[in-house]
Amino acid sequence: MEQNYIKPPVEIRYADELKTLRDNDNGKKPENWLLSPKAVRTFILGGEVDTPEGKVKIPRKFYGNDALVERCIITLAGSRGLMLVGEPGTAKTMLSELLSAACCGVSTNTVQGTAGTTEDMIKYSWNYALLLAKGPCREALVPSPLLVGMEKGIFARFEEITRTPAEIQDSLISVMSDQILNIPELGDEGLVQAKRGFNIIGTANTRDKGVNEMSGALKRRFNFETVEPVSDVSLEKEIIIREAENMAKAGHIDCPVDTDVAELLAVTYHELREGKTSEGTVVEKPAAVMSTAEAVSVYYQTISHAWYYGDGTADLGILTENLLGAVCKENKDDLEKLKAYFRTAVKEKAKKVGGAWKEYSKTASLLR
Ligand SMILES: Nc1ncnc2c1ncn2[C@@H]1O[C@H](COP(=O)(O)OP(=O)(O)OP(=O)(O)O)[C@@H](O)[C@H]1O
Ligand SMILES: [Mg+2]
Fold first, then answer.
1. Which CATH superfamily is domain 2-226 in?
2. pLDDT (tens digit, 9 = 90+) per residue, 233-269?
3. Which ligand is nearest to the CA of 44?
4. pTM above threshold 0.90
5. Ligand 1 in contact with 111 (CB < 6 A)?
């Protein structure tokens, strides 16, 4: 069943791990949480669980700042919301899904913020056929994820909150202050109080539209955590390999993982993001976002190509072409910056390190 879906929710994808953690959890638990903060930590950052049958390994899912993850969990156990901010592709959404699935068993109770998000989508709306037939009643009410979260005592996720106009975002303020949502149309029955366990996880991208687009009043109701890009090349390589492996498995692509190719990509992304090579040469940063998520996608495109058109071996020419598409989609000047990176850094590594870098360097002619 599960593999028929492109991206099963975290609680389904990791159902076995969550069950193991739950069955063997003897840590202190906030009211209405499925797992203790200790077990949530193990689920996200990996570790071992003692079970009657022996130790069970839980793999790490989020790489980078472990203390940030702990702080997020503690925030969620309290009454302030959690706001994950950062550059695109730094796993803010992934982290918010992991947290929701682990603490509440549901990661899909989500509002997607867009320029078109309205107050109804945040609070509640009506099934108009029922509203006309029966008048305002519970049955005719269409609750928003926020209302569902309040009534069930689970998290509501608010994705890309700053893409929503600030005055619409502000409808969260009263809920977050009083933990109450009033539905005046329902009269005496219209007062919904948030059950314990309810909280909000927001994500906001610092690139598209800044966090400054949020009102001060709303900001004060959230604890902010900035998720930074992965700073370690070998970690980034590990993420690329692991994510691409998962995607390949889901897409029934049976290509062996090419760690050399993952390394080339991880180094390229890292150095272009930092504006400096490991040898200390300064390189111009492209305007495009050099995120790990993009690197994963470039790698996956390359192995998909190898699977469907090639002999299953990743072709570095295809890799470079995919890189070109990913880096140069926003700004024409980025092409020159990518070319310059190949002329300097890649060429230097081809001489010094050799191996796959030599072949990679030869693909520079495809950058046009
Ligand atoms: N620190 C990290 N640990 C694990 N995976 C990561 C990390 N950083 C990035 N990734 C990879 O990048 C993917 C993209 O993450 P996600 O979509 O959650 O990013 P985002 O921060 O929400 O981006 P956007 O701002 O564009 O919405 C993840 O699914 C994962 O494969
Ligand atoms: Mg996101």
1. P-loop containing nucleotide triphosphate hydrolases (3.40.50.300)
2. 999 999 999 999 988 988 889 888 889 999 999 999 9
3. 1
4. yes
5. no
